[in-house]
Amino acid sequence: MATFESAVKRITSSEEAIYETLSDLRNLEQSKHLVSENTIQDIEFYEDKCHFTVNPIGQIDLSIIDKQPNKLIKLGADNAPIDFHVNIHLNKTSDNQTNLHVNAQADIPPMVKLMFGGRMQQFVDQFADALAGINYK
């Protein structure tokens, strides 16, 4: 299994507020302008899932498959050419400061990683940047 990690993003908000916002994927709508259309297109958000197109991979559906309040939101791929999931990790550093980082784990053979690994890393980095760009309560 290949793992792709984002940099840690420092967010000026409580982990509770961030978790509450990210637990409903419709709240990501406000940050979709932060994602490059060269990488991800046709993004649509619903309460517990989203779908988008990644060129040249195709349409991908992500659904919330696990939540640990104020700590973790895990998204799993529903219809993707590879099996993968994305984890959003929250770590409180002070009353109004939270570290967020994103990782993705994909079940891909080494040759496929050579072809698509850059795209996966780019997706993880852009996703983390978009989450850091949200105005949390």
Can you tag this structure with a few keywords?
137 residues; 8 strands; 43% strand
Could you walk me through the main structural features you see in this protein, from its secondary elements to its overall organization?
The protein is α+β, with helices and mostly antiparallel strands. It has one domain (2-132): Alpha-D-Glucose-1,6-Bisphosphate, Chain A, domain 4 (2-Layer Sandwich). Helix content is 23%, strand content 43%. The chain has helices at residues 15-22, 110-132; strands at residues 2-5, 9-11, 40-45, 49-54, 58-68, 72-77, 83-94, 97-107. Strands 1, 2, 3, 4, 5, 6, 7 and 8 form an eight-stranded antiparallel β-sheet that branches. The model has no long low-confidence stretch (mean pLDDT 89).
CATH topology: Alpha-D-Glucose-1,6-Bisphosphate, Chain A, domain 4
Give the CATH architecture. Answer: 2-Layer Sandwich
How many domains? The number is 1
- Overall geometric form: globular
Cα(first) to Cα(last) distance is 36 Å
Order of helices and strands: EEHEEEEEEH
Radius of gyration: 14 Å
Report the mean per-residue pLDDT as an integer: 89
**Assigned CATH class:** Alpha Beta
Number of DSSP helical runs: 2
The secondary structure category is alpha+beta
Unreliable spans are none
